[in-house]
# Entry
Amino acid sequence: MAHLVPVSDPADPRITDYVRLRDVNLRKSLEAEHGLFIAEGEKVIRRAVAAGHPVRSLLMARRWADPLADVLSGVEAPVYVADDATMESITGFHVHRGALASLERLPLPAIEDLLSGAFRAAPGADGAARRTPPSRVLVLEDLVDHANVGSIYRCAAALGIDAIILSPRCADPLYRRAVKVSMGAVFAIPYARMANWHDDLAELRSAGFTLLALTPDRKAAPLDEVPMGARTALMLGSEGDGLSSHWLDEADQAVRIPMSEDAMAAGVDSLNVTAAAAIACHTLLRR
# Structure
C-alpha cells in the first residue's frame, strides 16, 4: 500500500488542490491553472484512474485506505489522510464519501478527430482504446448547471450515445459536482468542446450527421417518428431558454417529445433538460 501522510493543518500547502471545493469561481481558476479536477468517492475515483487520468494526490479519511488499497498500490502520488473535521475545514463541506482524488486532465480531441474516431478514447475493460467513429452524438448548447451536465452524461452513457460535443459556454463535465452526479460516466463518453459557437455545427454536417434540434414546439415532428440517418446529432438547449434561434435554424429537423393532451391543457408543455435527454437518448437507442 502507498505510504499514508497524516495532515492536521487545513492550511498545509500540500493539500491546496482540495481547498474550498464549493467555491465555483475559485475552483474554475485553480483547476484551469493547474490542469486538474477532483473526483469524490471510491467508485468515481476508480473510474477516473481506469480512464487513464494521472493521479496528483489523494485525500481521505484513514478508514478508506483499505477499500482503496488496490488503487493506492498502483499510484506513486502522495496519499494524505485526515480526520473528518480537518477534511471539512479544507474542503468547505462534510465529505461524507470519505475520499477525494486530484487528477490531471487529459487533452480534449478536436471535433474533427472526435467525429472521425482518430483519437485515443478512454480504455475499456481490456485496456484497448476505442476508435470507432461515433454514429449517435449529443450536442449541448450553453447548459451551465453542473448537475444537469453530469446527469446528461450518465443518461448518455447508459443509453448508448457515442460522443458528446459541448458549446463554448457549457459547464465543465470534470467539475466535481458534474463528475459526482454522473457517477463517473463523464469518463465513459469521449467529448470535445467547440471553439466557435456560430460555425462549428458545420463540422457535424460535413461529417455526415443529420442535425436534430430538440424543442417543445408543438409544430416540431415527434422524435420517434423522424427517420434516422446513419449518423445523427441531437441538439439540446440550455435549462431556461432552450436552443438558440441560430441553432434551431441550423438544424435539419426540429423534433419534440410528445406530451399528453391533458398535460398540455394544464400548462405542462415540456420536460426539464435531464428528463428530456434521457427520453431522447432512449429513443435514439431504439431507432
About this structure: The longest helix spans residues 273-286. The chain has a mean pLDDT of 91. The chain has two domains: 4-104, 111-286. The CA atoms of residues 146 and 172 lie 7 Å apart.
